[in-house]
UniProtKB/TrEMBL annotation:
It comes from the Bacteria. InterPro entries: LysR_HTH_N, LysR_subst-bd, WH-like_DNA-bd_sf, WH_DNA-bd_sf. It comes from Alcaligenes endophyticus. Pfam families: HTH_1, LysR_substrate. Belongs to the LysR transcriptional regulatory family. The lineage of its organism: Bacteria, Pseudomonadati, Pseudomonadota, Betaproteobacteria, Burkholderiales. PANTHER family: HCA OPERON TRANSCRIPTIONAL ACTIVATOR HCAR, TRANSCRIPTIONAL DUAL REGULATOR HCAR-RELATED. This is LysR family transcriptional regulator. Residues 9-66 form the HTH lysR-type domain.
């Protein structure tokens, strides 16, 4: 790898590289970076031209890191970790505790503002929003200290501590003109054959698992017409594209434009769970404080 040109280490291009290295998908990476795919591809091509070798192996269906790409990713992650450890020591020297808090999107609707409002002023918080699977990896890689998220079925690891902090019911989100609005409660069976907004398999794994498990259990087959993530799903409901199953906390969004109805069945399949996750080895007082405060806020 040719490193004679120091300009290749510009923060923007390296950040773009790291995001694509995590997602291994140009569409998802572009979405995280808030750019379209052509500028993303151009940035990666310029970086590869600068270092003199391919960083990714691409074909029509897959994107993978090349051997050189893995070397660069490992080096950058190590640099980030060293910088974050330095910043933490500097802040601790000033008497300020610093916690890097990750959260999935649904946490922002209700829990996150309440939690932030309860934190002491001596605690400095850095926030990262992402989907649960990536947040779990960031906790494991020590890029995040603690995260509030939905736990996908495959999320395991003796190195991580998952603490259940809240259980809430799924409810039906409806356009005000939908016939089911007249029902005070809606049975799962009433969703059979309805146009339904599903969850994305890669960005909303947990909710997709829960919703599909619920339909399978009750032998219900809605007409899946779209898939997305919250809050876009509620935007599609508001546009009268279909109905959706969403957690109760989503009532805080579009409360006037979308009608929410509880499910008639009270069953474990109709419930969703929220977890706090940290590394087992991370026993910093500030991290434990955030974990306990999240639990306390949810139990009030």
């Amino acid at each position: 790898m040719r490193m004679d040109n120091p300009s290749i280490f510009q923060a923007k291009s390296l950040h773009t590289f790291l995001v694509l290295a995590e997602e291994l998908h140009f569409g998802r990476a572009a979405k995280r970076l808030h750019i379209s795919q052509p500028p993303l591809s151009q940035q990666i091509q310029r970086l590869e031209a600068a270092v003199g070798t391919a960083l990714f192996v691409r074909d029509t269906r897959n994107v993978q890191l090349s051997p050189a790409g893995r070397v660069l990713q490992n080096w950058l992650l190590q640099q980030q970790l060293e910088e974050e450890n330095l910043l933490r020591r500097l802040r601790q020297a000033d008497g300020l505790a610093h916690v890097r808090l990750g959260f999935s999107s649904s946490v922002a609707y209700k829990l996150l503002p309440r939690l932030i409002g309860q934190l002491p002023s001596a605690l400095r918080l850095s926030l990262e929003e992402s989907h649960s699977r990536l947040l779990i990896e960031h906790v494991r890689q020590e890029k995040v200290d603690v995260a509030l998220l939905r736990k996908p079925a495959e999320a395991i690891g003796k190195d991580l501590r998952f603490t259940l902090i809240e259980r809430e019911a799924l409810c039906v989100a409806l356009h005000p003109s939908h016939a089911l609005v007249s029902c005070a409660q809606i049975s799962v069976e009433q969703l059979n054959g309805e146009d339904f907004i599903d969850y994305q398999p890669d960005q909303a794994t947990y909710f997709r698992e829960r919703v599909h498990g619920l339909f399978t259990h009750f032998h219900v087959y809605p007409n899946m017409i779209d898939h997305s993530t919250l809050p876009t799903i509620l935007s599609l409901v508001m546009a009268n594209r279909g109905i959706a199953l969403v957690p109760e906390c989503a009532r805080a969004l579009f409360s006037e434009q979308v009608i929410f109805r509880p499910l008639l069945q009270q069953h474990e399949k109709t419930m969703v769970e929220l977890y706090c996750v940290r590394r087992q080895s991370n026993a910093q007082l500030a991290v434990l404080q955030v974990e306990q405060m999240a639990l306390d806020v949810c139990q009030r």
